[in-house]
Specification:
With about 240 residues, the protein is α/β, with parallel strands linked by helices. The chain has five helices and eleven strands, in the order βββββαββαβαβαβαβ. Bound molecules: flavin-adenine dinucleotide.
């Protein structure tokens, strides 16, 4: 059982939950936990949530959850769960979609929406270990207010330690926006990949259509499929 120690609003539809774990074991950035809710009548439902924090935070993890309209678990976490509640979790789980500084780079991270969560664990781990591995994050959001971890990403990029963050805003952009303003396509992938050379290590996470589109696009522009790891979050690209 985990105890909710803090809840933080990230965007209008996304919240982060700090969970205290009595039997904490360090995770590998990219891994997830399963959260299980059980009703009084025994009905139970389970969903996976990536770990947002790096493994350097002893005894606790952070999960970041987008509220899915008509969902079972994410609306419960948003609307019902409060600090001090205990929730059933199991993890850390997963051994494929993981990155540690010892795996090297250069690193190309591609996220759509809440798909940023496991990539943020990698970015936080990279910062905590003072890694200078060249890293570019291409992050697709609908609108500026939907960018999760916006301030932290800005601060980490300002350290000038080899992390660059490139946003694409697909539905609305603020006045004077100079970033990308369209869905990820091959031309965008080629531009973002170019400074990293021919063989970056790539992690892609988000809705299935974004993940498949970006992975196929990278292969088309010459990145070896063996260097690409993907994680799909949901059944839809809504
Ligand atoms: C390995 C893994 C890691 C994940 N990590 C995260 C994470 O860090 N943060 C996070 O917010 N989610 C994450 N997810 C997604 C999460 O597990 C749930 O699928 C999501 O929270 C919806 O669950 P729910 O019970 O609220 O909705 P459900 O009851 O499962 O679904 C309700 C309705 O919403 C649709 N739907 C389900 N999931 C999505 C979605 N992702 N986007 C749009 N529509 C959807 C369904 O088709 C259905 O119509 C992860 C999934 C996997 C497999």
């Amino acid at each position: 059982m985990a105890t909710i120690k803090a809840i933080r609003d990230e965007t209008p539809r996304v919240r982060s939950y700090t969970l205290g774990l009595p039997s904490w074991t360090p995770h590998r950035p990219g891994q997830h936990y399963d959260v299980r809710l059980t009703a009084a009548d025994g009905y139970s439902v389970q969903r996976s949530y990536s770990i947002a924090s790096g493994p350097e935070t002893d005894g606790e993890i952070a999960l970041t959850v987008e509220r899915v309209v008509d969902g079972e678990v994410s609306p419960f976490l948003h609307d019902v769960a409060v600090v001090g509640d205990r929730i059933e979790v199991r993890g850390p789980i997963g051994g494929y979609f993981v990155w540690e500084a010892t795996l090297g780079g250069p690193l190309l991270l591609i996220a759509g929406g809440s798909g940023i969560v496991p990539l943020m664990a990698m970015i936080r781990h990279r910062a905590a270990t003072a890694s200078r591995i060249p890293t570019r994050l291409l992050y697709s959001s609908r609108a500026p207010e939907d960018i999760i971890y916006a301030n932290e990403l800005r601060d980490l990029e300002a350290r000038n330690d080899g992390l660059e963050v490139l946003h694409t805003l697909t539905r609305s952009q603020p006045a004077g926006w100079t970033g990308y303003a369209r869905r990820i396509d091959d031309a965008m992938l080629a531009e973002v990949r170019r400074p990293l050379g021919d063989a970056p290590l790539v992690y892609i996470c988000g809705p299935t259509p974004l993940v498949e589109g970006a992975a196929n696009g990278l292969v088309r522009i010459g990145v070896s499929a063996q260097r690409i790891r993907t994680e799909r979050f949901g059944p839809s690209g809504k």
